[in-house]
Specification:
Blueprint: H1 2-42, H2 84-88, H3 100-107, E1 111-119, E2 125-135, E3 141-144, H4 146-154, E4 159-163, E5 171-179, E6 184-189, E7 199-200, E8 211-216, E9 225-240, E10 243-250, E11 262-264, E12 269-277, E13 285-289, H5 290-303, E14 310-311, E15 314-319, E16 330-336, H6 341-345, E17 352-356, E18 359-360, H7 364-372, E19 379-386, E20 389-396, E21 398-399
Length: about 400
Amino acid sequence: MEEKDKETKKNSKNTAITVLTIFLVLCILFSAVQTLYIFALTTGRIGNMSYTPGIELPEKPEDGDSGIENVDTVSPYADPCFSLEEAASVTDPNKQTLTTMEIASSVGPATVSIFIIGSGYSGQQEAVSAGSGFIISQDGYVVTNAHVVDAVVADDTMSIKIMVPGFDDLIDAQIVGTDEQTDIAVVKLMDEADYPTVTLGDSDVLQVGELAVAIGNPLGTLDGTVTVGVVSALERRMNNNGYTMKLIQTDASINEGNSGGPLINSFGEVIGVTNAKMSSAEGLGFAIPISNVRTVIESLINYGYVANRPYLGITVNYVVDNIYYGAVGGIYVAEIAPGGPGDQAGVRVGDRIVSFDGVEIEQSSDIIDIRDSHSVGDEVPIVVERDGRNVELTLTIGDSSISYEDD
């Protein structure tokens, strides 16, 4: 029995030695393969960021010469003469197309860095946030985003200082007016000077794929940064504090601090106000089309608020069909502003909006589009379903700047 135990122990020991030997051999083989792979990477023979040894870059080609016909390993589709500016620029016989450097030279001096000054952690007055803007008049009116200066609106102990290229000191500024719905604000430089200005373009004629240049103050520390891309898409619907906005999408790099800066076309014209980026992805920046907010900017300068903006005085919710027993899907009135246009028209909370101005309502954006197509004072038919029957009403478009509750 004792000899059998010794034999068993001996077999177990031999098995362990065999397994260990195989493991060591595998480790050595793995290390050898890894070493060869790393060597291939470092010599450019493999890998996503590799290069091909022995190929020289072609010399700068003469006019009409591609410069690549003698390099057999380069793709026949490669083009050393390619220029993003030329490919993405639009043409207009009445306008001069500019290079990126010319755009930066033209618009950069009128692009400002905005600093919100408040009490910091140390208790001292310092910049607590930052954004960008651009000067639209020689006497110093600056366009930016409402969210850039909203802290100053909410707290009168805070103030605004602006860095203008070419000026030695920060310049005090005051808020002229802000509009949360469009995320636009206008501030005024308080020092008297002859300021450089931008030229405003027409965002209604933008084309997907055309050149887009952004200038701003990313991270609040990199003033005058220029980034280049294209117009990636138009009329992207985004939600801004409950308001739906139609924005320009661009892959020009947009970061925190760029908010309020200009988005520029190939003619050096401002066609958008940068205001957002998709933080969960790269190359997804957004700007407010300048043509959509021209009247807002003018109204803020003229009155300090947006006058004559169509207003309904109702808040709606979307209800999914059969979300609960017997529920009819659609757009339902959730709130009514007391004394507002909807209240005066006889609209009630709980009404399902069937049609507005003769258009069948399927989503809340339908109502917004119809509202914005009308002017203050227009009478618009609205049909609502109430207690199982349709009720026809007439709603007079109101003015958002009026406080109807006080009437």
